[in-house]
Amino acid sequence: MPDNLKTGVDKPDLYDPKINKAYAELATHYGALVDPARASKPKDKPRVERPMPYVRDSFWRGREFTSIEHMQTEAITWAQQVAGRRQCRPLGGAAPMAVFGAVEAAALLPLPPTPFTLARWSTATVGPDIKVGRTAREAASA
Known about the structure:
mainly alpha, Integrase catalytic region, 2 strands, Integrase_cat-core, 5 helices, about 35% helix
């Protein structure tokens, strides 16, 4: 459930939000469902943003990294050794890594064999000289 971000949701709607074309293609490529939080409903946001203060206070505070690789290595270690082993009230006091291993891991699908390629979408106009935009391509005549 992503936030109702303007770059991902073209038109918010409770029942049928209009998802940005490129965002929808990315989700389809990776087999994900985009179900954005309701617009202008702050009660939905804690579900999405609740972990952020924990990450900020537990992982980022007081640390300095020399490179992106160093930060990534430290983040993986922290996620496995600290965050994944804490008791989590919404999970009935269970550790997130234990719940992930018992419930979630089996439901994961492998990544597609090819990475996602972003398409460029634009609206072309045909001029009176039958040229498309500013290119030398000509539109087919009817």
